[in-house]
Structure formats: C-alpha cells, structure tokens
From TrEMBL:
InterPro entries: Asp/Orn_carbamoyltranf_P-bd (IPR006132), Asp/Orn_carbamoylTrfase (IPR006130), Asp/Orn_carbamoylTrfase_sf (IPR036901), Asp_carbamoyltransf_Asp/Orn-bd (IPR006131), Orn/put_carbamltrans (IPR002292), OTCase_ArgI (IPR024904). This is Ornithine carbamoyltransferase. HAMAP family: OTCase (MF_01109). Keywords: Cytoplasm, Transferase. It comes from Ferrimonas balearica (strain DSM 9799 / CCM 4581 / KCTC 23876 / PAT). Residues 147-297 form the Aspartate/ornithine carbamoyltransferase Asp/Orn-binding domain. The keyword Nucleotide-binding does not apply. L-ornithine binds at residues 158, 221, 225-226. Its EC number is 2.1.3.3.
Length: 302
C-alpha cells in the first residue's frame, strides 16, 4: 500500500489484514502508543465533518502522532495554488496526507505528486475508510464475512461504491435497492460485479424492496448528498418507500441496521430502528477511528 484512494485497489488479504489490525488496536492501544511518535499527518477538509475529523485527530493522538487540520480558509485546494504544488510542499513537512474533498480527481493529483501516503477520507466517488469500518463492524458479529448478505437501500453514492467493492473483494453478497434513476455509477457496478464473481460473491441491484428479503443487515445513507439543493419534499416523494423502519426490518428479516451518519431521523431511518438493539450505528462510528489507525500504520510502517 502506497496510498488508499479506493477499496478497489486493495486485495482481500489486505482488507482482512486491516480489519485484524484494527481489532488489535481496539482491544489495546498501549503497545502502539508511540507507533507514530515524531510523525505528523495533515488532514485536508473541503467539506464539513464530525466523525472523520474527530476520529482521525484523536486516533492519530492515540498512536503518538501529531495531526494538523487544514480547512479552506487559505483558499480552495487547486484554486489558490495548483494541487501539484500543494502535494509537493506538504510532502516536505508531513508524513501523510488525509484528504476529504469534493472531486476524486483532487485526490488522484495529490497521490500523483505527493511523496508521502495519501488517504481518501471522502470524495464524490468513494469513501473507503467508511466502507472498511463497516465491514470491521460486521466482522464483530460474523466470523466469515464471505457469508454475510448486506442490503443497502436508498441513493447510490460514494458510500455505496465503497461497500460494493469491499463486499466483492471479500466474497460477500450485497443487494442494492434504489429508486429508479438513483443507482450507483454504472462503471463501478460493472467492476464490482466482476470482482464479486472472481471471489465467490454476488452483487444484485433492484428497485424492488422484496430483493432485500434474507439480508443479515440493512444499510442506509442520507437521501440527499451534501451540496445538493433538491427540495426535501421532492426527495421524500421519491424515497419514502425506501425508509428503514420496523416494518422493513420485519419484512427483510435483517438482524442489524447500519448508517454511516449524519442521519436524518424519521427521514431515511426512523428513531425507533436507529436506537434499537439492532443498531450497529455507533459501533460503526467508533470503528472509523480504529480502521483509520490501521490504515495509517500500514501506510507509514516503513
């Protein structure tokens, strides 16, 4: 691993290795409290954040490292100065770059010109740290991830893409149910289905809720992405049948529910389900820190 821009770039062995290391860290950080001693990680944020910013900052501190937060007060990345220059300058000072950006192209340019590892903490195409944290969370309840059947419902987006790649690499089954016109990117679907076939998994897409019957866990994300100005009334009119609620949990037989947050209660998911014993949502949030620390340790080990 030189960078982590997409789960697509990881082997199944690397994914399992990261999950195992994250579990080790979660159990006891003391042996790793100086693992990043003397190291500095720059975290770049073009978009607002709660979980990503806090989990990286505190996580890096747990490993003995220093985290430097950069927002857009000094100008948007690539506008005040070229992304190339941004990457080359930062590489002279820091030991890794974590970037939460609008365009995946920005990450690709950072990785091309940086001489230190670059981690995608969110782009318009992928959210690999989230996807890995989600399968870490599932691994705490299922010993064999290849036997897991995950159901995603709602808007096909960057999180969906990362989950599809992770499930495909691990040989798991994933069912993606979206309203017509809101499916994930076609090229990503084609790639994920080919990877799934190679590793004994399956990727199914449908607009029919019945396709979710028999899933082990249901996964929701917000129906409206950050920066989308579509009126909520119009969104609800199209997506309301795809809300995760107690009726859908019963219909599908799902034992667990996941959501990457921020969640809009009573919109894409009800509070009744979100706060229930079936919810793994706060486990997901905590596990972001542990999997991200595993990623940083793997990228910075040399």
């Amino acid at each position: 691993m030189n960078h982590l821009l997409s789960i697509k770039d990881l082997s199944p062995e690397q994914i399992h290795g990261l999950i195992d290391l994250a579990k080790t860290l979660k159990a006891d950080y003391i042996p790793y409290q100086d693992a990043l001693k003397g190291k500095s990680v720059v975290t770049l944020f073009e978009k607002p954040s709660l979980r990503t910013r806090v989990s990286f900052d505190i996580g890096i501190n747990k490993l003995g490292g220093h985290c430097l937060y950069l927002d857009q007060q000094n100008g948007a990345i690539g506008q005040r100065e070229a992304v190339k220059d941004f990457a080359m300058n930062l590489s002279r000072w820091c030991d890794a770059i974590v970037a939460r950006v609008f365009s995946h192209q920005t990450l690709e340019e950072l990785a091309e010109y940086a001489t230190v590892p670059v981690v995608n903490s969110l782009s318009d195409l992928y959210h690999p740290c989230q996807g890995l944290a989600d399968f870490l969370t599932l691994s705490e309840h299922y010993d064999d991830l290849s036997q897991v059947k995950l159901g995603y419902i709602g808007d096909g987006n960057n999180v969906t893409h990362s989950l599809m790649y992770a499930a495909a690499k691990l040989g798991a089954t994933m069912v993606v149910v979206c309203p017509p016109g809101h499916f994930p990117d076609g090229q990503v679907v084609t790639e994920a289905q080919a990877i799934a076939a190679e590793h004994g998994g399956a990727l199914v897409l449908s607009s029919d809720l019945a396709a979710l019957e028999g899933v082990d866990a249901l996964y929701a994300d917000t129906w409206i992405s950050m920066g989308d100005n579509t009126p909520m009334a119009a969104i609800k009119a199209k997506f309301q049948p795809y809300q995760i609620n107690s009726k859908l949990m019963s219909l599908t037989g799902a034992k667990y529910v996941l959501h990457c947050q921020p969640a809009h209660r009573e919109v894409e998911i009800t509070s009744e389900v979100m706060d229930s014993d079936a919810s793994l949502i706060l486990d997901q949030a905590e596990n972001r820190m542990h999997i991200q620390n595993a990623i940083l340790l793997e990228l910075m080990k040399d």
